[in-house]
Write a structure and sequence with these properties.
- The chain is α/β, with parallel strands linked by helices.
- Helix content is about 35%, strand content about 30%.
- The chain has helices at about 10-15, 30-45, 60-65, 95-105, and strands at about 1-5, 20-25, 50-55, 75-80, 85-90.
- It has a 5-stranded mixed sheet.
- The radius of gyration is 12 Å and the shape is globular.
- Belongs to the thioredoxin family.
- GO terms for molecular function: protein-disulfide reductase activity.
Length: about 100
């Protein structure tokens, strides 16, 4: 399951979590963001024991987006034990995310 996060919950959802959390920085008007959403849903379902996925709407939560210097969307940042360790900008395949999980477990 993918959760929505923002200013009120980001710390608990991402920074205080143990293990891997992938944050998808997106916006409703972003075409590539809509295209990657089903890929992230599949990753969340197939790897639910290994990773959590959170979505952050950059329009609604610009303070967090600025903190992580988000300039293009979709941007995905992988956090491990609350620290950013990897990431990607733009469309990625399911295999990319599987490799990212394997690399950082």
């Amino acid at each position: 399951m993918i959760r929505n996060t923002g200013e009120g919950t980001f710390e608990k959802d991402v920074l205080e979590r143990k293990g891997l959390v992938l944050v998808d920085f997106w916006a409703p008007w972003c075409g590539p963001c809509k295209m990657i959403a089903p890929v992230l849903e599949q990753v969340a379902e197939e790897h639910k024991e290994e990773i959590e996925i959170a979505k952050l709407n950059v329009d609604d939560h610009s303070i967090i987006a600025q903190r992580y210097k988000i300039r293009s969307i979709p941007t995905m940042i992988l956090f491990k034990d609350g620290k950013p360790v990897d990431g990607a900008i733009g469309m990625r395949s399911k295999d990319y995310f599987k490799e990212l999980i394997r690399k950082h477990k």
